[in-house]
Amino acid sequence: MPAIEIRDLRKSFGKLEVLRGIDLSVETGEVVCVIGPSGSGKSTLLRCVNLLEEPSSGSVHVDGVEVTDPDCDIDAVRRRIGMVFQQFNLFGHLRVRENLTIAQRRVLRRSRAEAERIATENLHRVGLAEKAHAYPAQLSGGQQQRVAIARALAMDPRLMLFDEPTSALDPELVGEVLAVMRSLAAEGMTMLVVTHEMSFAREVASRVVFMDGGTVVESGPPEEVFGSPREARTREFLHRVL
Ligand code: ADP
Ligand code: MG
Predict the structure, then answer these.
(1) Topologically, how does it sit relative to the membrane (predicted)?
(2) Which of 17, 124, 132, 233 has its CA 20 to 30 A from that of 55?
């Protein structure tokens, strides 16, 4: 059973059809990187997986549960999905440790002691244990994004969605966030990653998906998509970004 299975997914905003029949599955343990021009529907696709956007038609299954079924307990599914955005979305008025404990306590009903233990564990995982008492504004962008990843991990997600997690960062801070993502991938985390970091996609992805105009134009192992793209649109895009 795939971790994510998307079938003939369509999404319109008014008359604008943004996703035009997407088929995509992600196996457990796979790292799938989605690349493509701005406006091609990558964020919308990711947001349809945890129903931050409601698909117009088609189906999405997460671990065998159909999230597009109106009877689905979407909160239960969302609990299993970690999401990391371009903007880190940390709670600015809370210290790092509280950023990591609040959802554990409110959503997973963990005790304060357990939530704090798991927070510490996950701050270690992203190399920021010493920042537990800092406020987000006291951290660099790269550190804030690593906190956001640790916060998602503290919820024990079955899979992680990343939407351009390094796009808002100064260039010198990109590497530390990608390093954390690489180690997650090496640990076997299932990941669906929208990214402009072609070298990351090339080295870490099990599969690369090129989207354009709301469709999957081409997908395959990174060495194929980057090394010998079949479609003209893929070649043009890669020519522009590489
Ligand atoms: P990408 O992430 O590939 O840049 P998006 O999924 O963000 O693309 O957007 C795809 C298209 O959908 C764009 O034309 C965008 O303007 C439009 N769009 C995205 N979200 C909304 C929304 N909530 N309402 C109306 N249009 C939207
Ligand atoms: Mg986007």
Answers:
(1) Peripheral membrane protein
(2) 233
- For residue 98, report the distance from its CA to the centre of ligand 1, in Å: 32
In short, whether 227's Cβ falls inside 6 Å of ligand 1 is no
Residue reference for tokens 């409110």 = 106
**Tens digits of per-residue pLDDT, 123-173?**
999 999 999 999 999 999 999 999 999 999 999 999 999 999 999 999 999
Of 74, 24, 72, the C-alpha closest to 50 is 74
Q: Are 181 and 32 in contact (CB under 8 A)?
A: no
- Token pair, residue 83, equals 């999401």
Residue 201 corresponds to which tokens in the numbers above?
A: 């996609």
ipTM of model over 0.90: yes
What is the 116 CA–ligand 2 centroid distance (Å)? 33
Structure tokens at 195: 């990214």
Other C-beta atoms within 10 Å of 30: how many? 20
Bridge partner list, 163? 194
- Residue that is written with structure tokens 């947001």 in the block: 47
The dihedrals phi and psi of 140, each to the nearest 5 degrees, come to -70, 165
For residues 226 and 201, give the distance between their C-alpha atoms in angstroms, rounded to a whole number: 9
Stated pTM of the model: 0.97
Residue with tokens 């002691």: 113
Residue whose entry in the numeric block shows the structure tokens 């549960």: 65
